Amino acid sequence: MKLNHLVFDFDKFAQEMQNLKDKKHFDFLVTIVGEDFGEEEGLGCVYILENTENHERVSVKMLAKVVDGESVIPTVVNIWKGADLLERECFDFLGIKFLGHPDMRRLFLRNDFKGYPLRKDFKATDEYTLEDDNEPDYGLEYSLDRDGRLQKKENKLFTSDDYVINIGPQHPSTHGVLRLQTVLNGETVKRIYPHLGYIHRGIEKMWESMTYPQTLALTDRLNYLCAMQQRHALVGVIEEAMEVELTDRIHYIRTIMDELQRLDSHLLFTSCCAQDLGALTAFLYGMRDREHVLNVMEETTGGRLIQNYYRIGGLQDDIDPNFVKNVKELCKYLRPMIKEYMDVFGDNIIAHNRLENVGPMSLDDCINYGVTGPAGRASGWKNDVRKNHPYDMYDKVNFEQITLDSCDSMGRYLVHINEMYQSLNIIEQLIDNIPEGDFYVKQKPIIKVPEGQWYFSVEGAAGEFGVYLDSKGDKSPYRMKMRPMGLSLVGALDPMLRGQKIADLVTTGAAIDIVIPDIDR
Hints:
By secondary structure, the chain is an alpha+beta fold. 38% of the residues lie in helices and 19% in strands.
């Protein structure tokens, strides 16, 4: 998708964005990209919106206004709830203050971090500290007074009567790198403040100094269970910008590999979801069968956990001679095994009691918070990128978009189970029909992307994963930004869990299928 931005006046920005949602039904805020556009334009944001009725997408570009030496933009958090963490991310890395946002705190970096890393004039230092991070117990809200001067006020995060505990980062169910600051009333959750960045590696900053082929390896280590899809989005945006024409063989193989990766991820999801609830046998069953999927992928890619098979212009190598035979055997083996997971765990009365009516979120709230993937489809939202914005062979195969209306963790589990059957259906339609042809379309030794801005997304195992690219025509990207699958899911944990129990927090976190490196990047 080549981006042709709508541009609004600063004073009318909030009203125009409200009109886009109310009058033109752009009710899904896909992502917000913060960017340093250079000396002439300064700091600003690109907003990508979708109409969930006809799946039309538009982009809006808003340059920040400098007030009292600070860059400011009106918030849209009162229009789309999903903007909460997205705007805090822009503030964290670029220093843009969003007027009216109730909680302008850093999201990933320490509060005492000096500077804003995604600004072009940022100079990295080797300074570090072993001191504890002094965290404020308030969020800052910025506004402009009648004279146009910048004002701020403190919004308390806790009252004197609040009982606050930290769930994570040293906790098995938060993967050792996610901290949920949880306000409790007895065992009932009142509020959750997520703290991120425990494994932040600065990938988007590193990309700015890399050539396009060098950028590819970093996507594989985000959600390592979606390495194929995430690299697919990255090569997809570059290939679209360069107008690379791929062979049908490449399209077939990429679609099959994406679905094998989805099976890999969903098998680990069902296993770990069971383990987080204390069901070790179901965990072992799923891990046993995941090995079969990895065996099939490894014979072609050479990797198991980290897959690095796609490249700009096609594939790293052709499929293994035994690939077709082994994939067909895998499909035949897996179908009865998926039913076995339901027999052992999914239909167990304990699983129903732990999952049903836990972490509820309605259809409208899922759209408002940007909860894509199986977590959103469990509330009836048909958000599958493979259907709404098809790529490769997804518009040539028959498969069902699984949606339920239970709006809870049980529904999220069942969507994952049923999507594995659909992945098998897709693979079986393609595996015997892979056409002859080149597995790679040769590119120039130095790849340069034409000047412009693009956004390309795929359906990852946990939701939409997209890559925004701003190119100045050089061999390195001027700005590349990922839309991670998990950030919007973490942002939705607070409304999902208000009024629920502590044990329900563990269940909900397991059921929405977050992988922290994807969030932290």
